[in-house]
């Protein structure tokens, strides 16, 4: 089954008793789980009564099966989400394989792998083909199609041209794209539910979001020449200096937090999952954070705060921001 098929079933609250949902994009996985939860338990305020989330790396295959066998005490069904199943050892195949053959009819079990698993992976082979749902990173028309479906599930009509323009201007960050849909709808009025290309352009701007997205990538890649050129484009386009500084500060803070997490012993994969960015962007940021000591990352963040102080005291925005960008790109 593909992701679109799973989401369609999820929206109807008819997910299979066991599903292996795997892919590298956290937002896609979380959206699918959220829609399944909403369809299964509409109006349920306290989800802990009907949904259980467990860490497969902690409880193992036997623990997953034990949770799945628990009977519901509120309503007729339970949802059990086992995260991190890509970290399970192959010895879990026996217990999970046995459960898949005779699942608890009152439980919907979702095995969540935040990586795209190979067809030869033991988990994939342990599942019936219909229970394996791949969620690869989206690009091009597939990304636009997903975005239209995401909007429709939330009561918005996003036409094909508007979706294409939104992807063109905002890039492939799914969380950002999702947020821009609602903002574009509101641009047409408080009761507007139809999003057209005109509303998208009004909210996002022809080039602003693309330049912001490319600037963050240039910072992470330490490409000072590209970053300075993009900074010039943003400022020449009328972007407020303090708004640009806010974006630079957020990026410096994210790198600082990632550097600290890596130094504390968290795995790069775990840190990347928390970033909620496209896989390639998350990997690049983790590499940048890994190249800096926490102290160096903290100095970069403090440098942003210093520039904020200077600008608020009347400092010249263009040279201050240019020097900051050069410093943030320094290896």
Briefly say what this structure is.
With 331 residues, the chain is α/β, with parallel strands linked by helices.
Structure commentary:
The protein has 16 helices and seven strands. It has helices at 3-11, 26-40, 56-69, 93-101, 122-126, 140-153, 160-170, 174-187, 197-204, 208-220, 224-236, 241-263, 268-275, 279-291, 294-312, 317-329; strands at residues 18-22, 51-55, 78-83, 107-113, 132-134, 157-158, 194-195. The protein is 61% helix and 9% strand.
Helix-strand blueprint:
Blueprint: H1 3-11, E1 18-22, H2 26-40, E2 51-55, H3 56-69, E3 78-83, H4 93-101, E4 107-113, H5 122-126, E5 132-134, H6 140-153, E6 157-158, H7 160-170, H8 174-187, E7 194-195, H9 197-204, H10 208-220, H11 224-236, H12 241-263, H13 268-275, H14 279-291, H15 294-312, H16 317-329
Parallel strand pairs: 1-4, 1-5, 2-3, 3-4, 6-7
Which tags fit this structure?
single chain; two-stranded parallel ribbon; alpha/beta; five-stranded parallel sheet; 16 helices; 331 residues
Count all strands and give the number: 7
Dominant shape: globular
Could you give the distance between the termini? 45 Å
Q: Main β-sheet: number of strands, strand sense, barrel status?
A: 5 strands, parallel
Total helices: the number is: 16
Order of helices and strands: HEHEHEHEHEHEHHEHHHHHHHH
Mean pLDDT score: 87
Low-confidence stretches: none
Strand order of the largest sheet: 2-3-4-1-5
The helix content is 55-70%
Radius of gyration: 23 Å
Strand content: 5-15%
Going by helix content, strand content and strand pairing, the class is alpha/beta
